[in-house]
Specification:
By secondary structure, the chain is of the alpha+beta class. The protein is 62% helix and 13% strand. It has 18 helices and eight strands. Strands 1, 2, 3, 4, 5, 6, 7 and 8 form an eight-stranded mixed β-sheet that branches. Strand 7 and strand 8 form a beta hairpin.
Length: 557
């Protein structure tokens, strides 16, 4: 789904608000540590146990779900992110189980170190997941999937066994802070790993913006801040409780983004697609493209045979794990596509009834060609009208006039179209056709002459049975003209303007009934393929200079 357009001024505002929210926890931590009187102690083991247990449960659900999608997609990045979540979840659970006064009766080093160690392990997975894992690197990670998962679970289970059985070294008495000695440097490195991973995921978000990517960036940033609080806070003080809340917000934010994405997708299949590698995204797009192609093929088959597309949408739903709601959307899409194709056929038929086929085809293929304006093109313009039409019209009923015009145009139009011409307009008893526009034709002058001679032969055959009917006279001329859409924003038409077109209209007035008169440019362009008699330099109405004209008698043998 395309993202809504946001003005340039809105994007920096959103970024500023996001950064302020991320800075607030650090500001709060600084205030608590800078003013010790505010950093009061609150020792409530049971509240701690249930809070951490709830956050661990959310984390487990996210990690397991990501892992399942990673297996389905065979995506190394998503696998590593799922391991980061599971590592943090596992050690969070151990931290909850070691809460003094709940399952374990005394404070221990295991209680203090379980979460810093879990954050450190998760940070390694987070950083590696942000690296370039396309190709062989990603394949290597996938090959090591079972080893990575087994190693992580063995570490968590081993730590938990030592911790709950109250064995050394995790049963030692702790100090005033969670981390001391060499663990301080491990914790500082953990902060750096999370920040680097967050920056790399932010760069991915800049390339392909997605809500799930920004939630990962936010989560890793909050985990870095939580690690800072682990490093600096005293146990059971408000600053110590803050890192617990930061963990809750970090994983809760990802869970909320997944929930929102679930609502948009109508299912869980594509929740984490934004996190995947580019090669996975390409494979997903190719898969969906194949599904759409299959749906289009099914629609075409239904149009041809009248069969239903229901089984096809059911198969697509099963392939992509779609919900009933999504399947219903797919059914509606199929119906909409079918209706659109029917509308397109109807419009195409209507266009071709009112426009020349070349113009109609061009507009259907590219509607932008309907814009006002045009270009200068060398064309051959063909004008034809009926000599004596006004006198004839005075003595007959209108129905007889229409019958005559339709009979004449019924043979004239095919002659033009068969030679590649474009009928631009009918004006009363006259018609204008263009050659070399909109389709380009190197031999457009010869095509126009052939069409004119064929028209006269067809009209002669009709007029033989109706001697009282007037006859066509035809004029054609070649030269540059402005060809395009002329009119207004509300109504326009395809036409040509220029001296070459005007001269063709004047030559037609000089022709006798049944005769084809052409200009010198048309005579030269058609060459030896036609037989024409010179008519000399003629004076035409509305033009200062004379026009050299030729009467065409036929095509060369």
């Amino acid at each position: 789904m395309p993202r809504p357009y946001l003005p340039a001024t809105v994007q920096p505002v959103r970024a500023a608000v996001w950064l302020v929210h991320l800075a607030l926890p650090l500001a709060g931590l600084w205030l608590l540590l800078a003013v010790p009187s505010t950093d009061v102690s609150w020792h409530d083991s049971h509240s701690h146990f249930w809070l951490v247990l709830a956050v661990a449960a959310v984390n487990v659900v996210l990690g397991v779900r990501m892992g399942a999608v990673a297996r389905t997609r065979a995506d190394a990045r998503l696998l590593l992110v799922s391991l980061a979540f599971l590592a943090s979840a596992g050690f969070l659970l151990l931290h909850a189980l070691a809460t003094p006064g709940v399952l374990v009766h005394h404070p221990s080093v295991g209680f203090d170190l379980s979460q810093p160690v879990g954050l450190a392990v998760a940070a390694v997975f987070a950083l590696v997941s942000s690296l370039d894992l396309e190709g062989v690197r990603g394949d290597a990670v996938l090959r090591a999937r079972r080893a990575l998962q087994l190693g992580l679970w063995l570490l968590i289970l081993g730590w938990g066994a030592v911790e709950l059985l109250d064995l050394p070294p995790l049963n030692a008495r702790p100090g005033p802070r969670d981390v001391q000695g060499p663990m301080v440097w491990v914790t500082v490195a953990t902060v750096g790993l999370y920040l680097v991973a967050a920056l790399r995921y932010f760069a991915m978000h800049r390339r392909k913006p997605a809500a799930m990517l920004i939630s990962i960036v936010t989560a890793f940033t909050l985990l870095a801040e939580a690690t800072v609080a682990v490093l600096l806070a005293k146990k059971w003080a408000l600053s110590w409780w803050e890192w617990h809340l930061l963990l809750a917000f970090a994983f809760g934010f990802v869970a909320y983004s997944a929930y929102v994405q679930y609502g948009r997708e109508g299912g869980s299949g594509g929740i984490f697609d934004a996190i995947t590698l580019d090669q996975t995204a390409r494979a997903i797009r190719a898969e969906y493209g194949a599904a759409l192609e299959e749906l289009t093929t099914a629609l075409q088959e239904r149009e041809r045979t009248g069969t239903d597309t229901g089984p096809v949408t059911a198969r697509l739903a099963e392939r992509f794990g779609l919900t009933e709601g999504q399947t219903a959307v797919l059914d509606r899409a199929a119906a909409a596509l079918s209706a659109e194709r029917e509308l397109s056929r109807t419009l195409g038929t209507l266009f071709r009834h009112y426009l020349s086929p070349d113009v109609a085809a061009a507009l259907l293929a590219d509607p932008d060609q309907a814009a006002l304006g045009g270009e200068v093109v060398e064309v051959t313009a063909l004008f034809a009208d009926l000599r004596g039409f006004t006198t004839f019209s005075e003595g007959v009923e209108p129905a007889e006039i229409v019958r005559m015009l339709n009979r004449y145009h019924g043979v004239a139009v095919p002659c033009i179209l068969d030679n590649g011409g474009t009928v631009v307009q009918f004006v009363g008893d006259a018609l204008l056709a263009l050659f070399n526009a909109p389709a380009r034709q190197p031999d457009h002058a010869l095509r126009a002459v052939r069409a004119a001679l064929a028209m006269q032969r067809g009209v002669d055959a009709i007029a033989a049975g109706h001697p009282e009917w007037p006859r066509f006279r035809v004029g054609a001329n070649t030269g540059p003209a402005l060809v395009g859409n002329i009119g207004s924003e509300q109504l326009r038409g395809f036409n040509a303007m220029g001296d070459a077109v005007n001269v063709a209209a004047r030559l037609q007035t000089l022709a006798e009934p049944g005769q084809v008169v052409i200009g010198e440019a048309t005579r030269l362009a058609a060459g030896a393929a036609i037989v024409a008699q010179p008519m000399g330099d003629l004076t035409v109405k509305g033009r200062v200079t004379t026009v050299r004209a030729y009467a065409v008698t036929g095509l060369a043998p």
